[in-house]
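Entry 14. Ran structure prediction on the chain below.
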Amino acid sequence: MQMITEDKLMKLKSGTDIRGVAVKTDTEEIELTDEVVEKICTAFVIWLRKKENKEDLKIAVGHDSRISADRIKKAAVKAFTSEGVTVYDCGLSSTPAMFMSIVLDIKADASLEITASHHPYQRNGLKFFTKNGGLEGSDVKDILHIAYSAEPGSKEGSVVNYDFMTVYCEHLKNRIIDEAADGEKPLENLKISVDAGNGVGGFYAEKVLKPLGADISASQFLEPNGMFPNHIPNPENKEAIASACEMVKKSNSDFGLIFDTDVDRMGCVSSSGEEINRNRLVALASVIALDGNNGGTVVTDSLTSDGLRAFIEEELGGKQLRFKRGYKNVIDKSIELNHAGVNSPLAIETSGHAALKENYFLDDGAFLATKIVILLAKLNKQGKSIDDLIKNLKEPAESMEIRVPILLDDFKEYGEMVIAQLTEYAEKREGWQVEKENYEGVRINVDGGWFLLRLSVHDPILPLNLENDNAGVSEKIAKELKEFLSSFDKLDLKNFD
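Output, C-alpha cells:
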C-alpha cells in the first residue's frame, strides 16, 4: 500500500477539481485509492460543516461513465455516511445536473460528481459543488490539507437512491416547451442527432429531444461505455468533431450536438455538416445571451479571434472582454462584472464551456444545447437556419497552435521569463504591436491577425496560438518565433517541425 503524504494529496489538485489515476496501467499506479477518496470526502464534510455552520447535511452524488466510477462512489458514500450525512445516490449523472441537485427537488447542501471530464479512461476525479457553485482552487487546497490528517467518522448516515436525472431532464424539457411556445411537441419536424461519445450525454437525445418530437434516429454513441471505444468524448478533439459532422451529413439531420464525457461542454454541427465550434460557438452563444441584453459584456478566454470581437460589438451591439484561459476564470470575471454593476450575461471559453447568467453561471453543455434547440425550433418555423445567425462572423484564413514544452519541473519562473523577453522583442519589432488589453501571456497584433504566447497553468508548456486572415503568414511568423525561442536551452522546439 502506498503511503499517503500531504504532497501526494496536493498533487491531485487540478485547478478547481481533484484528479488522478484511478485504474492501474502498465505505466501508472492508482492515485485515487479507496483510502485517498475516503480521506478527501471526509475532509469535504469537515470543511463544509465549518463553512455552512450546519451539522445535518444532505449531499448528492453522481458519476460519469468511467469504469472506476462505482468503486470511487462506494468509497465516497462510505466516508459521507460515516460522518452522519444523508447521501442521495443519483447514479449516472452529468456534472451540471449535480449542481442543479442543490437548486431543484433534492435541495442538497452540496454535491459531488465523480468525473475526469474528457481525460482518458484510467483517470477519474472528484468535483464538489456548494450552493455557490464549483469550489475555488483555494477551497480545494484547504480540503486536501484537512484530508491529510482526516480520520474516518463513526456516525451512521443514510443512503437514498434517487433518479435525479429524470427531474433534471423535465426541467430542460419544460424550458423548451415554454420558450419555443409551440405546444407539447415543439421539435416534431426536426431531425436532431446527438453524439455522446459513450459518455453521459445520451440522456439528452433520449429523455429531452425525443419526448418533444425530435427525430433522434441518427444519433450515435449514446450508450455509456467508460472505455470510450469510438472516440474521445471531447468537442475540441478533431476526430470527435469530424465524426459528429459525418453523422449529420450522412443522415441529412437538421442539426447535430456533441457533448464531452460529463456534459459540462458541448459543440454543434449545422445542417450542412459544418462544425459550430470555438469562435463560431461563442458567436452563437452571444446571439442567444445578448437577446434582451443589449450592450451586455460577453467574457471569453484569450484565444478568440478579432472577427469574433467585431461580430459581438458591431453586429450584436454587445461588448467583449478577452480574459484568461480557464472556464472558472471567465465565469468568475463575468460574476465580478455583474457585482460591479456591469451587465454580463455570458461567460464562455472556446473549449465549449459556456455559463449563462440566467442559469446560475453554471457551465452546462445541456443547458446551452437547450437554448440553441429553442432557437432552432423558432427559426425552423421561419424557414431559416442557425447558419443565418452567424453568417456575418468573419473567420480567419488560418489558425494554428504549437505547444512548446519547458524541460523543467519548476517551470513557471522560466516560462514567465521567456514571455517577458518576447514582449521586449515584439516592442522593438517593426510591424508588431503588443496588445495592451491582455490578461495572460503576451498577445501580439500583426498585419492581418495576431499571435499569443502564454504559460499553461498546470503543465510545463508554453502554448503558442497564431491566427491570420492571410494564408501563409502564420507559418512565417512561427518560423521567426522558432528562431527567437532557440536561444532558450530549456525549451523543446520539436513541435515547430
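The two ends are 44 Å apart (CA to CA). Will compare against last week's run tomorrow.
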